[in-house]
Amino acid sequence: MRDDLLPASLSLDALRDAYGTIAHHVHRTPLLSSAFLGRQIGSTALLKCENLQKTGSFKPRGALNHLQRLDETVRQRGVVTVSAGNHAQALAWAARTLGAPCTVVMPGSASAAKAAASRGYGAEVVLHGTVFDAFDRAHALEAERGLTFVHPFDDEHIVAGQASVGLEILEQVPDVTVIVAPIGGGGLISGILAAVKQPRPSVKVYGVEPEGACAMRRSLDAGEPVRLDRVQTVADGLAPPMAGTLTYRVVRRYVDDVVTVRDDEILAAMRAILSRAKLVVEPSGAAAVAALLGGRISIDPADRVVAVLSGGNVEIGRLGELLGDSNE
Fold it and tell me: Fewest C-beta atoms under 10 Å: which of 12, 236, 244, 302?
């Protein structure tokens, strides 16, 4: 396969088929106007509220699509994954929905609330070392127990499921001109790019990463997927230490740009979203708005801009700490 070609599973027809298989299980999340953000960027602004999705993030879309593609015998043996939290909850929910066993390996520093939520959805949760250690442990369990490893982002069926976010945006805002989405490992933005750029190449799509965890930006600069030796950001959902091979390929082909934001800008965006839109998002979910408020993306007054709020899973006890850390 030529490097600039998408796999067949990411063709537009395949993406629409994937959406059809998950649509009756997941929410068609609302897309709300934001007068405050519109005034700040001098254009029409809307928020795609994936913080209101099942399990509190966009992740169930991909997790469910992946599990539905597995042979029933394979699925019943169980699945295993690595996640800082949102993918763990999503895979646990999807496995419970389809009656499959699920094990998730999370770094020892993972959010206690996200670990508890994953257990609540029925998963066995293993806390283990750093994110690199967690990947090693997950693959060891895969071999020991005969489980199927479900990658949190670098997987065709995961990306195809996340593409439903892009398909919904095109249906909800037919005249959209700009989409801004956060990047962790790249599953979400790859899905959005595949869904949007194939039928509507004129729509500009921008990715946003934290300065302290910008594996995709560095990969694009290097011309190949890179692995970071260290990540440091308040946005744990955007902290995978590497860009995926597939996701890098999709992003390189289609993205208009990938920009970075500081943690203080992410927290300021969280406060703005809560105070102005009355929506609770986690730091990862505020990154797209942070980039727009910070002027990282050039916007024309005639644009119709959609910012994706990717998740809302923030611990109640930590919410006050994050929102109170203001430099204003």
Answer: 302
- What's the number of domains the chain is made of? 2
| pLDDT surpasses 70 at 325 | no
Burial 282-321 (b: 16+ CB within 10 A, else e): bbbbbbbbbbbbbebbebeeebbbbbbbbbbbbeeeeeee
Q: At 251, which CATH number? A: 3.40.50.1100
180 with 200, same domain: the answer is yes
DSSP 226: -
Q: Please tell me the predicted confidence (pLDDT) of residue 328.
A: 41
Query: In this model, does residue 317 exceed pLDDT 80?
Result: no
Two tokens at 252? Answer: 């390189």
Measured CA to CA, the distance from residue 204 to residue 206 in angstroms comes to 7
Q: Tokens in use for 326?
A: 């203001």
Mean pLDDT score, 38-66: 98
The domain in which residue 136 lies consists of 60-149
The pLDDT mean for the chain works out to: 94
189: closest CA among 213, 220, 165?
165
Averaged pLDDT, 195-215? 98
Question: Does residue 1 fall inside a structural domain?
Answer: no
Torsion of CA 188, 310, 208, 204, to 10 degrees: 70
How far apart CA 276 and CA 285 sit, in angstroms, is 15
Give the tokens for residue 295. 């002027």
240/150 Cα distance (integer angstroms): 15
Burial classification of residue 174, based on how many CB atoms lie within 10 Å of its CB (0-12 exposed, 13-18 middle, 19 or more buried): exposed
Among all residues, which ones are annotated catalytic?
59, 310
Q: Is there a contact between 304 and 43 (Cβ–Cβ < 8 Å)?
A: yes
Same domain, 76 and 201: no
C-alpha 235 chain-centroid distance = 12
Strand partners, 106: 127
